[in-house]
Write a structure and sequence with these properties.
Structural class: alpha/beta
CATH superfamily of the largest domain: P-loop containing nucleotide triphosphate hydrolases
Strand content: 5-15%
Distance between the termini: 75 Å
Number of helices: 19
CATH architecture of the largest domain: 3-Layer(aba) Sandwich
Number of strands: 13
Length: 451
């Protein structure tokens, strides 16, 4: 739609609301923004005069009434000329006109955005992602605000329905359970549409815990996407096999398996492995930029193969696309981008992160929110922050509080298998510590019992 055609369509819209009160009220009550309907400055001014007349007289004007109103308020010749155009050059009003004009406004905004990006000499995937983000923002600003807004009453009713379902034992639609019973009792699960941080010092089992969550989520029927920059797909699969078959991972690495176990692997006897292979996607293609991560997530979400995202891990994400000189500011921007992306896609995004060495300088070795290695923005953007802590790594007694812990098969928990999940931040629930059994040789986690 060129400028002349666009202007004529705007004149048709003005003609329609001057000739029909019903058309005026339909347009007025819809709440369209003036600037989205009228790009021609004179058409915009004439529409503003129509609105002013209505506000003063509680009745929309026809063409003669508006002509009199213009004369009464100074007789702007340009507006008189424009009103004559409306009366003589713009017949054939159609109710669909406002939508056509707004959609054209979107097209023009996209063209301008495209020109800006081209002038920045951005190309390839970065250009595609920047343009997609720009388009999403344009659509949200110029169209979605008219169609997707929810009244508070509607949200309140939805909340009461969800609450009623929870009271009778239904699972929350806003969370996906971790599959670790003692953990789910406290946090309800992984929150959808939000960013979750899992952090620890090296050697605590971050990647193993991520895989445990992914397996548990797969078994519930959900698809998981693991974007791995630290480990290859083969290494991750080896850990899954170790956990599911309870085979020491060193035996897999060295190939020292007995015939029975090896044949079991060949026959893929465990049903859980079938499910995991079906439901889990691993992207291990090396360097990942924020644009590439978002593009990968979009691809699998479009294919209905992505319900939960794991990113392993933060320090390995390439941040060259950000223009900040300081690394912590780049990390802060990545954190904000992932938080907004999680909300936009309604996906839970779990970001694995290292912690700084300040933890090891403390007497009790317990991590805190201030220990998040890259940026304090992570703490602000995440709905939930979870730390992994193994006292035995520091030669500490994990049972100093006097509690005796047992495995689910009633064996006394070994000190080296004791791991604490520290819920350091939980915007919608409790914080605290949850003991688990961690078997490093199998890369597996499970709940424990207290007596």
């Amino acid at each position: 739609m060129d400028v002349k055609v666009r202007s004529n369509q705007e004149l048709r819209l003005l003609s329609g609301i001057l000739n029909s009160k019903e058309s005026f009220y339909r347009l007025y009550n819809h709440g369209y923004r003036y600037g989205d309907l009228f790009l021609d400055h004179e058409n915009l001014q004439l529409y503003q005069l129509i609105i002013n007349y209505y506000n003063e007289n509680s009745n929309p004007p026809d063409a003669p009434s508006l002509f009199t109103y213009i004369l009464k308020n100074g007789g702007d010749k340009r507006m008189i000329t424009q009103l004559k155009k409306v009366s003589t050059e713009a017949p054939g009003y159609e109710p669909v006109l406002p939508i056509l004009l707004i959609e054209n406004s979107i097209e023009l905004a996209v063209e301008r955005s495209n020109t800006v990006l081209r002038n920045e000499r951005i190309s390839g995937l970065q250009y595609a992602e920047r343009l997609r983000e720009s388009i999403d923002g344009i659509v949200a600003e110029k169209f979605e605000c008219y169609e997707n807004g929810k009244k508070r009453d509607d949200v309140y009713r939805e909340y009461l329905i969800d609450l009623s379902n929870l009271r009778i034992g239904a699972k929350s639609k806003d969370y996906i359970e971790t599959g670790i019973e003692s953990l789910d009792k406290v946090i309800k699960g992984i929150p959808k549409s939000h960013l979750t941080i899992i952090a620890a010092r090296p050697g605590m089992g971050k990647s193993a815990f991520m895989l445990q969550l992914s397996r548990n989520i797969n078994i519930q029927g959900y698809h998981t996407l693991i974007i791995s920059m630290e480990m290859t797909g083969k290494e991750l699969i080896e850990r899954d096999i170790s956990a599911v078959y309870k085979i020491d991972s060193s035996e897999l690495t060295n190939g020292k398996l007995c015939n029975i176990r090896f044949n079991a692997l060949l026959e893929n006897q465990k049903s859980d492995i079938h499910v995991i292979n079906e439901k889990c996607i691993i992207e291990d293609s090396g360097s990942q930029t924020p644009e590439r991560i978002k593009s990968t997530i979009r691809k699998y979400k479009t294919l209905n193969r992505c319900d939960v995202v794991f990113i392993d891990y933060l320090s390995l994400v390439s941040l060259k696309g950000y223009s900040f000189d300081r690394y912590d500011l780049c990390v802060a921007q990545l954190s904000k981008d992932l938080r907004e992306f999680a909300k936009k896609t309604n996906l839970p995004i779990i970001l694995i992160s290292q912690m700084n060495r300040q933890v090891e300088a403390r007497q009790n070795k317990l991590p805190g929110l201030s220990d998040l290695r890259e940026s304090g923005q992570l703490e602000q953007d995440a709905k939930m922050v979870v730390f992994l802590h193994r006292p035995s790594v520091y030669g500490m007694n994990p049972f100093m509080d006097g509690k005796t812990l047992y495995t689910m098969d009633d064996q006394l928990l070994k000190p080296e298998e004791h791991l604490n999940i520290i819920i350091a931040k939980n915007r919608s629930g409790k914080i605290g510590q949850i003991p688990l059994r961690y078997q490093p040789q199998f890369h597996s986690f499970e709940s424990v019992k207290t007596r």
